[in-house]
Amino acid sequence: MQTLKFTDLPLSDFILNAVEEMGFSETTPIQAAAIPAVMSGKDVIGQAQTGTGKTAAFGIPAIEHVNVEDRSTQVLIMCPTRELALQVKEQISKLAKFKKGLLVTAIYGGESYERQFANLKRGTQIVVGTPGRIMDHIDRKTLKLDNISMLILDEADEMLNMGFREDIEKILTFAPASRQTVLFSATMSKDILNITKKFQKDPEIIKVTKNEITNVNIDQTYYLVKKEAKFEVMVRLIDKHDLQLMLVFCNTKSKVDELVEDLQAQGYAAEGLHGDLRQAARNQVMNKFRNGNTKILVATDVAARGIDVTGVDAVFNFDLPMDLEYYVHRIGRTGRAGQLGRAFLFVTRRDRGRMRDLEHYTKVQIPQGEIPTQADMEKSRQVKLVEKIKANITEDSNEQYEA
Questions:
Q1: Mean pLDDT for the chain?
Q2: Which of 13, 182, 273, 339 is a good FRET partner for 43, with 20 to 30 A between their CA atoms?
Q3: Predicted local distance difference test score (pLDDT) of residue 324
Q4: 76 closest CA partner among 15, 154, 18, 19
Q5: Sheet with 75-78, side-by-side order of all strands
């Protein structure tokens, strides 16, 4: 399935500006296929895993769809958990940044009704929520679905697994029959198909199969480390494996800056790349990395999109990525052109659940590595010294040492 540039799609300038600011130029396969289908107004079933970029696949058409002159709720997005609802709300807010007058609100359990009610009263055109809380607001008459023209179910299989079937069906019956219904799910179970039969009209089905996820020629290892010990472990691994050119991924801009400072203080030629850099500075950093003046490039995922550098010895996942698909993009930058690449992953105790999700997602069991000890480091330095001396001795130009 192809990817396109966002500029190849029939999108408004306010979306293109937001997408550019977020650092994206090309669509993912699900976005390329789903955005035009959803924008055409027909019902759509999208089969795609988490981490394939599906939020923008339905978020962009939802933003395009809203009439900002109208303060009523026009788009309702249902998600299985409060975490996902918040994530979707944040992503849509970023994509809608340049569409003046558009409001997005998230409603979910565990937060006071008053605050949510105040947001809804302001006139929110896009509401993202969990089925239980959406139902509560409908019952309290604080959420009206009379003007809903687009209804989106995100991770529908997950919602059904969590027992939301009754709520979902009830909510769907409250929305006008003329609405457009869009459903995204990783799997197509019998229950999902029943819902689509009952509530969708002749839907277009879009299926994105994940490519074989991780490259065979990449040696992946994870290390269980305390958060504050990550830097020391990374330095030891760099020295032990005598790595020359490396990419290091962090989840935040502040972490990138902090890490670059720490590496430079230890004498490493390191530079950072994140969304705050202007294009000229970005080009400068990339050129230094390409010509080998910079040995370690520390970057966020968004900033690293489109980096194409050959000969990277290793990729460090200093933080486990927020979005699992990013892991595949990250490690794919080492081990190219038949060379064996290395990928190191730092996992704290808190990350263990997400680590299991990652293995499940990539269908690869990643072995745990032993953190090099001080003794290992000494040994490694001795070996390097001996190698250096041997290389000097065997050089032809050392006549004065022959005797």
A1: 87
A2: 13
A3: 78
A4: 154
A5: 104-107, 126-129, 75-78, 150-153, 180-185, 44-47, 204-207
Distances (CA, A) of 194 to 156, 191, 199: 12, 5, 9
Q: What is the pLDDT of residue 258?
A: 95
d(CA 336, CA 345): 19
Least Cα distance to 364 among 260, 220, 230 occurs for 220
User: CB of 203 within 8 A of CB of 42?
Assistant: yes
Token pair recorded at residue 347 = 């996992």
The residue-averaged pLDDT of 91-105 equals 94
Q: What is the 3-state secondary structure (H, E, C) of 189-221?
A: CHHHHHHHHHHCCCCEEEECCCCCCCCCCEEEE
Reported as a pLDDT band with limits 50, 70 and 90, residue 213 is very low
CB 106 within 8 A of CB 86: yes
Mean pLDDT of 146-171: 92
Whether 356 and 328 have beta carbons less than 8 Å apart is answered as: no
**pLDDT tens column, 347-362:** 999 888 889 888 888 8
- Spell out the alpha helix ranges (H) of 96-240: 113-121, 131-139, 156-161, 165-174, 190-199, 230-240
Strand-pair partners of 128: 77, 106
133: nearest Cα among 185, 85, 71, 183: 85
What pLDDT score does 212 carry? 44
Say whether pLDDT at 157 is over 60.
Answer: yes
Collapse the DSSP code of 40 into the 3-class scheme (helix H, G, I; strand E, B; otherwise coil) and give the result.
coil
| Contact present, 303 and 23 (Cβ < 8 Å) | yes
| pTM, 2 dp | 0.59
> In degrees rounded to 5, what are phi and psi of residue 196?
-65, -40
